[in-house]
Model the fold of this input.
Amino acid sequence: MWYSKLDRSLTNGLIRRYQQFIPLDVNANIVSINEGDTPLIRLRSLSSHKLNITVYGKYEGSNPTGSFKDRGMTVAISNALAAGNRAIICASTGNTSASAAAYAARAGLVAFVLIPEGKIAVGKLAQAIAHGAHVIQINGNFDDGMMLVKDLAKTEQIAIVNSVNKYRLHGQKTAAFEIIDVLHRSPDFHYLPVGNAGNISAYWMGYQEYHLAGHSKNLPVMIGCQASGAAPFVRGEIVLEPDTIATAIRIGNPQSWDLAWEASQNSQGWFLECSDHEILAAQKLLAEQEGIFCEPASAASVAGLVADLANNKIPPDSTVVCTLTGAGLKDPDSALLNGPAPMSVSADLESVKRTILDNIS
Done:
C-alpha cells in the first residue's frame, strides 16, 4: 500500500523537524515512523566532578527499529519512493537490514537484503524477516555483499539504501542537531563506533551545518572507535577478514573511508581500537551502572573513552558525548553468553531467601 498524504500529515519524524537541512522535494511523501528525538543521557559513572568532565550517551536504541539507521532510512526511502523506485536493496551486518525492511514496508516497497551467512545477530535477522524483506544470505562477509549490491544497482532499477546513498548521511546528521539543541552547544569530544564509517561522517556534517547556521559556537573533536579485529582506519588499510564480537562494526572495507578521514583530520580527532574484552566490559558497565542495555558495537564508543580517560587524553572542563548506536536486544545472545548464568534453586522459601541474602552486598 503506497504511503498516503494523510499518513504524511500525521507524522512527526526528523525530516519535518529539520526540514531546512534535509535534501527532499517539498512535495515528496515523507516515509516516517517517528524516528529521532532520542535521549541524551548523563553517564554518571564516567563523568568526573573533580575534573568537571561531563559525559553523555546519545542512546539511538530508542529509534523505531532500535538503531541509528532509522535516521538515514527515513530520508533514503522517502527519496527512493519519490524517484519512482518499487524496490530497495542493501548489504548489511544487521541493523541496516532491519531498518530498510521496516521503512520499505511502511512505504509499500519491496526490500531485498544481503547478509553474511551465520554472521548476523538473531534479533536483527528476526526484524528483517518480520517486516517482509527478501533475505538473501551469502557465503561471504559484509564487504562481499556490498560489492554485489553496487554491481546490481548498475543494471537494475533498484535503490541502494546503504550509506553510499547520500541521503542516508543527511538523515543521520540530525543526531548532531539534537545534541546541540539539548546542550545549546557542541560537545568538546564526540566518540562513535566506526564500521562502515557513515555515522562519524554524518555527525561531522551535522555539527558543521548547525555551526554555520549559528546554532553552536564550537565544533567537537571526533573520535572513531573500532574493534581490534576490524580496524582498517587504525591499520591504515583494508582488513580482508574482519572479526569481532561486535557484529555491527565487523567491516574491513568502509564505504565512507574518505569522508571519515576528513571528519577525523578536520576536527583534529583520531581513531582508536578496542579489544572485544574491552567492548564487552563497557557494555557491562553501561548496563549495570547506568541502566542502559546497548549492543556490543555501541559500547565501542564507551570502551574508547574509558581508555582515553585512563590516558588523560580528556582535559578538565570537557563535555563528552558517546553515541550508543543500537539497543541491546538487537544481539541478546552476546549478553547471555558473556553474562552470569541464572541461579537455580529449589522452589521453597528458605532456599530462595538464602540465595537472596547471600547475594546482597
